[in-house]
Specification:
single chain; alpha+beta; Cyclophilin; 2 domains; nine-stranded mixed β-sheet
Length: about 325
């Protein structure tokens, strides 16, 4: 283990994340993990890591970082105008960087969350099997918090000379965060709490992502969704993408740092493959929903897993 990055400027809210803290929700521990798991996984694969290695998740305003030793890096997700010593670098491609160089981030171009991976992966103590930061409880990641000026991060000590830089994602495979397409959902377990007309309204109206949104969930504003009787249910499990509707009729999409159970009626769930498209939207963006079958959601998930299997093979060459 050797130090690899020094934080010169912390950015808006940069934290260490992996694929989440799995198996502890029954104890009230949220999964946390990367908001955009697709971008996180791709960044790791581009630098020769396993997909579950920790990355640095940056939101809108990235950090300024000093490179402390030679390595290979890649960014997945949002384009936050990254540069090495002032020379632009771009998401979805790996680059070789050298000790003493400065990585900076500037104006957000598109997307919200960016993921920085380094060859070998960041080293930090695992908490309940994960390096993911859960700030509210002060666990995981780097001292259980977002990064601050002066922090020095470590990575596995390895010879990166054999790791080929310049690997990239084909243009056809790069997500288009500016694409205006509906976010696909499956009907929720509490659909009986809403009339058919209310569900159709949810699928036809546009909803705005409000500034009160964060890693716990995206709060939406739009035409209120009426309940048949009341909003409250006996507390039940919630998942990534669960859409709750409290008494005010304004939907909330639960995300990485969500609570483990919820007491509001669940009208729908965002399908796994569309969560990245949702979380990469900016605050103030409009979003529409499209209801699909469970079978379609499952087929898309399996297709994505086949894609990652193919990509792992291709990037080893």
């Amino acid at each position: 283990m050797k130090e690899i990055l020094e934080v010169m400027k912390p950015g808006l809210a940069t934290s260490m994340q992996d694929l989440g803290r799995v198996g502890y929700q029954k104890y009230g521990i949220p999964t946390s993990g990367a908001m955009d798991a697709f971008a996180h996984r791709i960044a790791n694969l581009l630098v020769g890591n396993a997909e579950e290695e920790a990355t640095l998740e940056m939101i809108l305003m990235g950090s300024q970082l000093k490179i402390l030793r030679d390595t290979v890096i890649a960014i997945g997700g949002a384009d936050l105008s990254a540069a090495i010593d002032g020379n632009p670098i771009y998401p979805w491609k790996s680059y070789r960087v050298y000790a003493g160089q400065i990585m900076s981030f500037g104006k957000p171009v598109h997307g919200t969350y960016a993921y920085l991976a380094v060859s070998g992966g960041f080293v930090t103590e695992e908490v309940m099997g994960s390096k993911s930061t859960y700030v509210q409880a002060g666990i995981g990641g780097f001292e259980g918090r977002v990064l601050q000026k002066g922090d020095r991060l470590s990575a596995k000590d390895m010879d990166t000379s054999s790791i080929r830089a310049g690997k990239y994602l084909k243009k056809i495979d790069i997500p288009n965060y500016e694409q205006h397409r509906p976010i696909r959902i499956i009907a929720g377990p509490d659909l009986s709490a809403f009339s058919n007309e209310a569900y159709q309204q949810f699928c036809q109206e546009s909803y705005r992502i409000t500034e009160q949104s964060n890693r716990m969930g995206y709060r939406l504003a739009g035409k209120a969704l009426p309940h048949v009787e009341k909003a409250d249910i006996i507390s039940d499990a919630v998942l990534p993408g669960t859409i709750q509707v409290p008494a005010n009729g304004q939907p909330i999409v639960l995300l990485s740092d969500r609570q483990t159970t919820g007491g509001y009626a669940r009208i729908a769930t965002v399908i796994t493959t569309d969560i990245p498209q949702l979380v990469q939207k900016r605050m103030g963006s409009e979003v529409q929903f499209l209801s699909v079958s469970l079978e379609k959601a499952q087929a898309d998930y399996l297709a994505q897993q086949r894609y990652f299997k193919m990509l792992r093979t291709a990037l080893r060459q």
